[in-house]
Amino acid sequence: MGKGKKSGEKIANRECEVEQDKTCIMSTEKDDAIEATRVAKVHFPEFDADDIETWFVCLEAAFCVSGIRTDSFKYNAIIVGLGNRAKFFHTAIQKCNASESKDKYETLKAAVVAYFRPSENQRLTHL
To answer: Residue 90 and residue 88: Cα distance in Å, rounded?
Structure first.
């Protein structure tokens, strides 16, 4: 186990691995100051629009293993993970940025899951 990981923490999916090094996480929120001192470089799972729920499970596992807890870091991680797909969520991102809310991550996550979740017809044809 690498430095900073508690014994017993495991990740089943290799895409969710976290590498420990001396990269600092920069942020602007007061609570993020604590996380900015962490020396973890999170390796985000490759975005998978076909299995969005599993992508979020892997992303959240990477946060857990790295000790990432702040809403703003998690929120920004979704945007990074989406890459050029973030344009589909411009309205939700603007709403979150304009808000003083502490649940930006959950708000954007809900929008992303709703957008990429297969329709009922798609799920039935997959059976």
So the answer is: 6
